[in-house]
Amino acid sequence: MAGRTEGEVLADLKASLGDAAGSFAAAGDADFKRHLRVALVAMQEKRPRTLVGEVQLTADQPSYSLAAVPAFAAYKSLIWGGKRIRPWEPFYPGALPRVQAVQDSGSYTLFFDPPPSSAHVAAFGTACKFWYWAEHSLGATAAACTLAAADLPLLVLRAQAEAMRELSLRNSQKVVQMRDGYSGAPRNVTPAALYAALLKEWQDAR
Q: With 0-12 CB in 10 A as exposed, 13-18 as middle and 19+ as buried, what is 11?
């Protein structure tokens, strides 16, 4: 995956905002980084990232920390328990537990209802693998970028929309100029109107 660094994407974002970039003066590019964080979360919906996670099961234990699962955003489905054992076959462990991810104080736990039984663990093993949706990220190196190069303009577009949303809350009537993320042509319009237009453009993109 030919990605870009966070610094390069920040530079693209600031350049695309035109004179509107001057409205964001926080130290260390904190404003622009905030816009990118919002855009990265939104890109989880636009370009879902699916990874495999694993927890070690203990019979009759219902919950398992996901702190060690990288970039966990949401639970998807079980891989564990996929070996088909029919009810009339020997060692049938019973129906699989229902599984969901529960968030508490910023950390996630995988919760089994009912807890996996000793029969489940004997039949399917203690290594419980599952599919999950993962967060997108940028970093100091191109290798840390989880988005395809072709999707980076979409990321910048969504960050532009977030910047205009913030500006619209400050002064909805002030006209600003910024540059289109695709054509480079200037746009002159109020932040509120730009926010609506940019968000729709992002939502309609495929």
A: middle
Q: Residue 176 corresponds to which amino acid?
A: V
Using the predicted structure, report yes or no on whether residue 2 has a pLDDT greater than 90: no
Residues found in the chain:
206
8 Å CB contact between 38 and 92:
no
At 142-183, the pLDDT tens digits run 999 999 999 999 999 999 999 999 998 876 556 555 555 544
pTM above 0.85, yes or no: no
SS3 of 161, please? Answer: helix
- Say how far apart CA 102 and CA 85 lie, in whole Å: 29
Euclidean distance between CA atoms 74 and 81, whole angstroms = 20
Q: Where are the domains of the chain?
A: 6-47+143-204, 50-134
Residues 6+ apart with CB under 8 A from 5: 138, 139, 140, 141, 142, 144, 145
Rounded CA gap, 145 and 67, in Å? Answer: 21
- CA 129 to centroid of chain Cα atoms: 20
Q: Is 176 strand, coil or helix?
A: strand
State the Cα–Cα distance between residues 151 and 153, nearest whole angstrom: 6
Report how far Cα 174 is from the mean position of its chain's Cα atoms.
32
pLDDT at 185 over 50: no
Dihedrals phi, psi of 92, to nearest 5 degrees = -60, 120
